[in-house]
Amino acid sequence: MIYACHLDDLPQGESLRVMADDPIALFNADGEIYAVDDTCTHQNASLSEGWLEGCHIECPLHEASFDLRTGQPTCLPAKRPVRTYPVTVDDDGGVYVDATVSERITEGAA
Amino acid sequence: MRAVAVVGASLAGVETARALREQGFDGRLTVVGDEDRLPYDRPPLSKEYLLGKAETDDLALLDGDDEDRLGIDWRLGVRATGLDLRRRAVELADGTEITADAVVVATGAAPNRLPGTAGLEGVHVLRSLTDADALRADLAAGSPRVAVIGGSFIGAEIASACSVLGLETTVVEALDTPMEPVLGPRVARVAAGLHGDNGVRLLRGVPVSGIRGIGRVTGVDLADGTVVPADVVVMGIGAKPATAWLEGSGLELDDGVVCDTGLLTAAGGVAAVGDVARLRGADGTSTRPEHWTAAAQQPAVAAANLLAGTALQEYRRAPYFWSDQYGVRLQFAGRAAPGDEVRVVEGALEEYAFAAVYERDGAVTAAAAMDRPRSFTRLRRGIGRAAAPV
Ligand SMILES: Cc1cc2nc3c(=O)[nH]c(=O)nc-3n(C[C@H](O)[C@H](O)[C@H](O)COP(=O)(O)OP(=O)(O)OC[C@H]3O[C@@H](n4cnc5c(N)ncnc54)[C@H](O)[C@@H]3O)c2cc1C
Ligand code: FES
Asked: In chain B, is it the N or the C terminus that has fewer CB atoms within a 10 Å radius of its CB?
């Protein structure tokens, strides 16, 4: 479990990047916290810098979009999903990401 | 519609094939391409690929699933040499032809070369994977001194890669400030500063008068008498739409294949997409965006209009492109005109970290950013909504 931030640091509609072996992007989508791989599966861009709309994140480079609930791309040019990670928020508002049990999705599932 | 022929097997051609299938076309779909390989993505060629951080597989535009789903009849490694509009027949260099109900021209653009450089070793352009492999090999042989002719986007990216490779690099640019026609003077000056700050020499305001060398290049001559010694020379001096094969076909050609904002040409059943397409608006003004995003997004509009047999949809997106130089990501959207005011909305120009808008008469005409993707996207979305058809 990685301590990511305090809930206060991640208001609704905001995102931030957490350094891990592979950087992880955290989003507050209408009160729900999601964690996915930060690097777009298309090319080289950081999804935490993307455009959050509902529970979809649009990549800031070529506008691929991913469903934060599943990691699946919902439009081109990305074809492969990003990994999603379980998030826990403790009673004090601490946000933790379980980077070890990344919910790995088999490639080609898109 | 039973058969469509797409000429040009790159981004715009592939996206056309994809869009046609997605929109329900289940007839014969032929894609002709003169390169002897499956379609690949070009932007990484001057970025990760040149540095060896991406390989051929990473560039593929289609994966196995796509190939199964799209059911394309490939004609690769063969050039289209003519188009008979009356029969909608594409003539190929091997003497065969493909007749179809609709033809999509997606032949892109071919790089400009300085006269007298043909056959001179060590002189390169960068458009194709073959070009990139040749350049990569030359950059890896010894420690060549490199001269990049043209300091625009691709030239600047190549110079940036050369500096990462530790090569002595000079950029030669005819304009006083490279990229000024697109970025405007203020932002272009900032971008030009990246070269010097990263140990690359920028010689500007002087045109090239000749290339030196017999058999192999030894340097570049400038109009003011300066000689830039070089073992490798790369020409990044723009590209011309690949329309030679359409001369005499009856299609209107004007620095590109002229089409309407729905990507349809005046000849029924013929569309143009991507770098080769010149979109002419109802007011007579025209543009040929020459960016990745246009080549990726125009095909959906073209496919819809071809299948409908009339221009139901328009391509209305504001131009957008990005460029990675010296570890800085530059993004730009919209159209800046001379005299537009630049207002920085975040960060600072001189720190190579900013988001800025261009304004004219109180209206935003364009947005530019360096390493500020998030603010840039917000600004870009504002421009997208305000964009006129052309
Ligand atoms: C090195 C490089 C870096 C780039 N970087 C960026 C970037 O960072 N950002 C950005 O927005 N854009 C960038 N671009 C531009 C972008 O790649 C182009 O806009 C895009 O490739 C256009 O796609 P297209 O399919 O229209 O044309 P092209 O990619 O040019 O493809 C046309 C295809 O048609 C083939 N062809 C031509 N004539 C014939 C014929 N007669 N018969 C059969 N086949 C033919 C060509 O060989 C080619 O395969 C870059 C381009 C290059 C070369
Ligand atoms: S890098 Fe994300 S869509 Fe291309």
From this structure: N
* Chain B residue with Cα closest to A108: B65
pLDDT digits (tens, 9 = 90+) for A83-108: 999 999 999 999 999 987 665 554 44
B346, B375 contact by CB (below 8 A): yes
Distance from CA of A50 to the nearest CA of B (A): 6
CATH numeric code, B327-385: 3.30.390.30
Taking CA–CA distances from A46, the nearest residue in chain B reads B373
Q: What pLDDT does residue A110 have?
A: 37
Q: Do B109 and B276 touch, CB atoms closer than 8 A? A: yes
Do the Cβ atoms of B314 and B389 come closer than 8 Å?
Answer: yes
Going by CATH, does the domain composed of B3-110+240-308 fall within 3.50.50.60? yes
In this structure, which amino acid lies at residue B339? G
Nearest in space to B126 (alpha carbons), one of B12, B275, B235: B235
Q: Answer whether A50 sits within 8 Å of B373, measured CB to CB.
A: yes
Angle, helices B153-164 vs B180-197, to 10°: value is 10
Contact A85, A75 (CB under 8 A): no
pLDDT in tens, B251-269: 999 999 999 999 999 999 9
Domains B3-110+240-308 and B113-237 in one fold: yes
Q: Are B316 and B387 in contact (CB under 8 A)?
A: yes
ipTM of the complex: 0.90
pTM attached to this predicted model: 0.95
Using the CB atoms, write b or e for B179-217: b if 16+ within 10 Å: bbebbbbbbbbbbbebbeebebebbeebebeebbbeeeb
Sequence ranges of the domains in chain B: 3-110+240-308, 113-237, 327-385
B104-150 per-position pLDDT tens digit: 999 999 999 999 899 999 999 999 999 999 999 999 999 999 999 99
The alpha carbons of chain B give a radius of gyration, in whole angstroms, of 21
- Cα(A80) to centroid of ligand 2, in Å? 11
B55 C-beta neighbours (distance < 10 Å), count: 10
B/e letters for B103-114, b = 16+ CB within 10 Å, e = fewer, are: bbbbbbbbbeeb
CB contact under 8 A, B48 and A108: no
